[in-house]
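Exercise 7. Given the encoded structure of a 100-residue chain, write a plausible sequence.
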């Protein structure tokens, strides 16, 4: 598994706003959330599986507000060519658009 830690910005103390910014970026870039849940190992976390229609690979995103931690995971047998660029696109999109 490959894990990419994301810096938690000080202005992102609002968990709901942070999750909204991720979900909007994922949707706006044409990605699909195929699993929306939590991880027992990280109580209170939100865990998403993200795919790109027509492409192989699954990107996992975990947001754990109580520890101010956000990370992407890529399981070894779920890698796709779009994933690295997808992470960059999601992060750029969500940080460049103010919440409405």
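Solution.
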């Amino acid at each position: 598994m490959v894990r990419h830690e994301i810096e938690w910005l000080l202005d992102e103390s609002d968990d709901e706003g942070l999750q909204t910014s991720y979900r909007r970026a994922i949707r706006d870039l044409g990605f699909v959330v195929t699993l929306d849940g939590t991880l027992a190992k990280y109580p209170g976390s939100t865990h998403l599986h993200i795919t790109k229609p027509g492409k192989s690979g699954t990107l996992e995103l975990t947001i754990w507000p109580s520890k101010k931690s956000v990370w992407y995971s890529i399981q070894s047998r779920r890698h796709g060519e779009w994933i690295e660029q997808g992470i960059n696109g999601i992060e750029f999109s969500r940080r460049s658009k103010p919440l409405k």
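Remark. The chain is about 30% helix and 35% strand. Students should compare their own answers with the one above.
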